[in-house]
Amino acid sequence: MIKQMTRAEAKLVAEELFKLIKKDRQLGEKLVGAIRESVAEEMDEYFDTKSAAEFLGVSVHYIYKNIDDIPHTNIGKLHKFKRSSLAAFRSRI
Q: How far apart are the first and last CA of the chain?
């Protein structure tokens, strides 16, 4: 079970990260990048089939025809497509 951080604990962590960033700029840039990536994952948008097709610039028929190759999640009978996964897939097609 993961314990939720208190405000005081979060403040201490933030202060320590700030100190590390000031000491080592390259480490700081890596930390900021990792944090942005983590936040982006948490905030990632999901598309339905029609929206996924529009995002990829393909037809809905293409989506259904290639469903096994396109990263997606099934919720019941519905296909849901994560924006970041579609972006990675789009770079391969």
A: 40
